[in-house]
Input
Amino acid sequence: MSMKNLFKNFCFAGVASVATLSTAWANNVQVALEGSLLKVVGDNLANDIVIAQNIAGDITVTGRNGTTVNGRPSFRLPRVALNAIEMQMEGGNDIVTVRNLQVANDLYANLGEGNDRFDLLAGTNVGVNASVEGGLGADTIRVIDSIVGEDLFVDGGLDALTATVTRATIGKGLTVIGDEAADRVTITDTTMADIGTVETKGGNDRVDVSLVMAFAFAIDTDKGADIVNVSDMMTAEDVGVFTGTENDRVTLTNVMSGKNLIVSLDAGADAVTVEGVSVTADAVFEGGAGVDTYTDLGITSGIKLDVKEFEVFR
Output
């Protein structure tokens, strides 16, 4: 079973019990603590909430811009040892901000339809897995100055995704998935013990990855005129960049791969620039159909350097 389905099976069990709370208020978010599981359910309006925990363990959910929480401006839960949190925001252009939250197990957020924003900010520590899913709409998802004990999963759903992961510590892997739209993914100053994966699918996408340490890393942008910039990356094993048709630009700067590097560009007038790249085993560059440009400003490979299907060399 996929990680996504595991999150859903865990989080949606018993969600109906939250939905039975009073829904007499418009632009209201319902909050309930069931044992050590915190459930947050929005409505179909533009909900705007902040979920924060203080040093004493008190969790406060505060509404902003007209949003109420259980019919009040804010709702406080004293001295909570939180095992897990589930957020189901439903429709509307929602904003969810999470700060300083300590979660022993899993965090799951489904943003629903609408142009939503989700921020997992400074001081948040998720003991196991964190999963944030968008729906139909252009979503912005940010994970900044946070710790995830195992896997971090970000899925923008349908429409454009803007995803940012900055100064995060991830105990296992990172997965970011966009859609057939112009996605923007930025990952910087982040470490992960397992594989990092970015998949943006179609659209004119941009992926910027810098100051990252990982076991391995793969970027797949599929069709569209895409831009991929990778700098100051170190991996124990493979690094892969795969673009689809149309005119793509890939720049690799100060990248160290502990095993192999492959860049495959498919059709289109593509361009690759490498500078300060070090590969322990094989480095392979495939230009594909079209007039492609390869610019070598510095690359070393321990076994093989294979540059093929390029027409212009600089």
Notes: Residues 1-23 have pLDDT under 50 and may be disordered. The first strand starts at residue 28 and ends at 34. The first helix runs from residue 3 to 12.
